[in-house]
Automatic annotation (TrEMBL):
Keyword set, alphabetical order: Nucleus
KW RNA-binding (keyword) present: no
Gene Ontology molecular functions: DNA-binding transcription factor activity, RNA polymerase II-specific
Protein name in the entry: Sterol uptake control protein 2
One Pfam family cited in the UniProt record for this chain: Fungal_trans_2
Source taxon at top rank: Eukaryota
InterPro entries xrefs: Fun_TF, Zn2-C6_fungal_TF
Source organism of the structure: Pleurostoma richardsiae
Keyword Nucleus: yes
């Protein structure tokens, strides 16, 4: 009976909030899922994780366990499917819908940050090499260009409020201090592009968020060696960069996605959980580099007024 509940919850509340205003896309996905077991399990796992975050303690334990079981099954079945050529447009859509569902499930997992990065990379791999032409798929509006166009359409007629200038300067100061830790080409590239996008937030939250959306291409386009090194939990410079990135993405997204922010439940809580997890694993000599994002994350979680900033 829980699986029926999960399926209903997916259709009504837990389908991925991207593409923007994409409910019709996900209803079409639900209509074809009966032909692809990996997609069914990915959808059920996502819904179970979504339910677990708002559940009582006893139900949360059960939902979390079932979410994990569905996730493991979906990943195994999807990997088997990806070992064979894609046979049809519908199969390509099912593959991409499954990897999207697994990605968003990661975003509901307090320990899921590294999984999230891997799934983001998986989205790029599937869209480029494991399905027919992406521009012909039901997800064609979720290309980078299509996503940015939808983002601008979402904000049409709204004042494009910039982020608070003092807050942006504080972020920039903390980000620049991480520069001394960066060694690899990917780390340096990430830092430079990140600083430029954050500066844009002083002028336009929508433009800044569009730039942050493009950041995910960095993960997808990196070589296997570079991505593995960047994702390594022992790469403390990259971990600190990611703490800043996910915090900034949440803050600017709260403005740029304001009309649909209700579609991103638990985003703040999961972002804070990821930053706390990073901070807990850093050696003491890195405390100064994680201090500002950690303090601001705690402030954000406990003070909705944003009337004062951590020093």
């Amino acid at each position: 009976m829980d699986d029926l509940r999960f399926f209903q919850h997916f259709l009504l509340h837990a389908y991925p909030p991207l593409p923007i205003r994409g409910v019709a896309v996900w209803r079409d996905v639900a209509a074809l899922c009966h032909s692809y077991d990996y997609l069914v399990h990915a959808m059920l796992g996502l819904a179970a994780s979504h339910l677990s975050l708002g559940a009582t303690t006893s139900s949360r334990t059960s939902f979390t366990a079932q979410a994990f079981e569905h996730r493991v099954t979906a990943i195994n079945l999807l990997n088997q499917a990806l070992s064979e050529p894609c046979a049809s447009k519908a199969e390509g859509d099912a593959r991409f819908a499954a990897i999207m569902s697994l990605t968003f499930q990661s975003s509901y997992m307090p320990e899921g940050m590294l999984d999230f990065l891997s799934m983001i990379r998986g989205c790029t791999v599937v869209s480029h090499s494991a399905m027919p032409a992406f521009e012909d798929s039901m997800f064609r509006s979720f290309s980078l260009e299509g996503h940015i166009e939808s983002l601008r359409s979402l904000n049409q007629g709204r004042e494009d409020s910039p982020e608070d200038e003092g807050l942006v300067d504080a972020f920039l100061s903390s980000i620049r201090a991480v520069g001394a830790l960066c060694r690899s080409t990917m780390e340096v590239r990430f830092l430079a592009a990140f600083e430029a996008v954050v500066k844009t937030a002083k002028i336009s939250a929508v433009d800044s968020f569009a730039g942050l959306s493009a950041f995910y291409m960095i993960f997808g386009q990196a070589t296997n060696e570079d991505f593995k090194a960047f994702r390594d939990p022992g790469n403390f410079a990259a971990q600190i960069l990611l703490a800043h990135f996910f915090l900034v993405e949440y803050m600017i997204g709260a403005i740029a996605l304001q009309p649909i922010m209700g579609s991103f439940p638990f985003r703040k809580e999961i972002t804070v959980a990821w930053i706390r997890a990073i901070a807990d694993k850093l050696p003491a000599e890195y405390d100064q580099h994680i201090r500002w994002p950690l303090e601001f994350a705690e402030f954000l979680l406990n003070d909705k007024s944003r009337g004062a900033l951590p020093e």
